[in-house]
C-alpha cells in the first residue's frame, strides 16, 4: 500500500506535471471507484489544475476550486503517461480504473490490481467533507507536530504500539510497512503496549517516526511515479524481508502473520532476542 512517503512523492511529481494544465477528459473505467456523484466527474473538464495536496494517504488535485481526490488503497497506483493511448477506453476486467487526460495529450491512469476493489475517487469542492479525510489525525511530518503533541496522542491509548501507529485517526499516513520500519529504528516490540511506554521510550519513538518518514521522503524525492514502488522496497530494512539478516545486528528477520497482513521485526533489536508468537502458524500446527 502506498504510504505517506510515496504519496508525498506523487504529490511533488504531479505538482510539476499537472499545475497549470487543463483537464480535458476524466473518464471512469471502473464505476466502483467513484464514491461521489455530485459534482460529476465531467465538472472537472475544462478546469485548470492550480495545486496538488496530500492529506495522509489521500491525493488532492485542485482544479479551480473543484477537487479530484483519490485514495490508492492497498493495490492501487498512478501511472503517468507522456502520451495517452489513442481510442476509447471501455469498462472491462483489467486493472484500469480511471483515466485523466490533459490538453497536452499527457495524463495518467489509476489502476488497481487484485480482486479486492478499494481504490476510491471523489469529486468535491471541500476536501474536509470526505469522511476519510475528516477523520485523519495530525500529519507526523508537519512542522507543528512536536514531541509533546505525539506524547499527548499516546497518553490515553491502551493498545499495542503497532496498531496505534497504523491508526489513521491517530496519525495520518503511516501504514503497515513504515510502522515496521519505525519500530525497528526505535528498537521496540510491535506488541509493546502504549500504556507501558516510558518518557525515554516515547522520545525514541518520536525520533524514529520523524526520521524514518523524512528519510523515506528524501529518497523518493525526484523519483518518477513509475519507479516509486521499487524505490520504497529497496529502502526498507525489515518490512517484507523475512528470513534475511537484520542490517543492524545480523539476526534473522522474523514475521508474525495475521489473516490479511503480516509484520516483520528483528528479535535482537526489538524483543530482547525472543521470537514473537505467530498466532496464525500456531493454529496451523495444532
Strand content: 15-25%
Largest sheet report: 4 strands, antiparallel
The protein's oligomeric status is single chain
| Tally of strands | 10
Explain how this protein is built.
The protein is α+β, with helices and mostly antiparallel strands. The protein has helices at residues 4-18, 131-134, 147-155, 161-166, 176-185, 199-220, 228-235, 267-270, 279-285, and strands spanning 23-28, 49-55, 58-63, 66-71, 76-81, 96-102, 107-112, 120-124, 254-257, 262-265. It has a four-stranded antiparallel β-sheet with strand order 1-6-7-5, with no helix packed on it. Helix 1 (4-18) runs parallel beside helix 6 (199-220) and helix 5 packs across helix 6. Mean pLDDT is 93; it is low at 281-286.
Give the helices and strands, then pairings.
Blueprint: H1 4-18, E1 23-28, E2 49-55, E3 58-63, E4 66-71, E5 76-81, E6 96-102, E7 107-112, E8 120-124, H2 131-134, H3 147-155, H4 161-166, H5 176-185, H6 199-220, H7 228-235, E9 254-257, E10 262-265, H8 267-270, H9 279-285
Antiparallel strand pairs: 1-6, 2-3, 3-4, 4-8, 5-7, 6-7, 9-10
Quick recap:
About 30% of the residues lie in helices and about 20% in strands.
Describe the structure using short key phrases.
single chain; alpha+beta; four-stranded antiparallel β-sheet; 20% strand; elongated
Amino acid at each position: 500500500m502506498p504510504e505517506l512517503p510515496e504519496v508525498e512523492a506523487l504529490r511533488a511529481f504531479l505538482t510539476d506535471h499537472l499545475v497549470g494544465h487543463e483537464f480535458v477528459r476524466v473518464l471512469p473505467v471502473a464505476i466502483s471507484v467513484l464514491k461521489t456523484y455530485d459534482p460529476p466527474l465531467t465538472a472537472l473538464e475544462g478546469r485548470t489544475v492550480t495545486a496538488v495536496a496530500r492529506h495522509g494517504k489521500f491525493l488532492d488535485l485542485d482544479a479551480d476550486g473543484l477537487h479530484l481526490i483519490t485514495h490508492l488503497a492497498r493495490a492501487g497506483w498512478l501511472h503517468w503517461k507522456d502520451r495517452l493511448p489513442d481510442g476509447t477506453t471501455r469498462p472491462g476486467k483489467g486493472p484500469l480504473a480511471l483515466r485523466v487526460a490533459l490538453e497536452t495529450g499527457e495524463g495518467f491512469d489509476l489502476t488497481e490490481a487484485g480482486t479486492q476493489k478499494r481504490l476510491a475517487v471523489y469529486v468535491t469542492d471541500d476536501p474536509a467533507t470526505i469522511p476519510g479525510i475528516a477523520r485523519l489525525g495530525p500529519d507526523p511530518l508537519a512542522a507543528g507536530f512536536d514531541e509533546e503533541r505525539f506524547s499527548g496522542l499516546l497518553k490515553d491509548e491502551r493498545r499495542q504500539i503497532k496498531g496505534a501507529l497504523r491508526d489513521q485517526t491517530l496519525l495520518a499516513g503511516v501504514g503497515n510497512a513504515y510502522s515496521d520500519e519505525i519500530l525497528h529504528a526505535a528498537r521496540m516490540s510491535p506488541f509493546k503496549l502504549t500504556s507501558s511506554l516510558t518518557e525515554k521510550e516515547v522520545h525514541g519513538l518520536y525520533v524514529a517516526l520523524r526520521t524514518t518518514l523524512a528519510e523515506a521522503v528524501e529518497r523518493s524525492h525526484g523519483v518518477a511515479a513509475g519507479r516509486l514502488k521499487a524505490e520504497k522496497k529497496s529502502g526498507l530494512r525489515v518490512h517484507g524481508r523475512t528470513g534475511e539478516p537484520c542490517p543492524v545486528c545480523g539476526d534473522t528477520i522474523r514475521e508474525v502473520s495475521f489473516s490479511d497482513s503480516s509484520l516483520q521485526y528483528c528479535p535482537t533489536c526489538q524483543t530482547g532476542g525472543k521470537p514473537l508468537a505467530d498466532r496464525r502458524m500456531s493454529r496451523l500446527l495444532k
